Amino acid sequence: MKREVLPHVPDAWADESKTKVGYEINFNRYFYQYTAPRPPDEIETGLKRIEGEIADTLSEVTE
Question: What is the mean pLDDT of residues 43-47?
Answer without folding.
Answer: 97
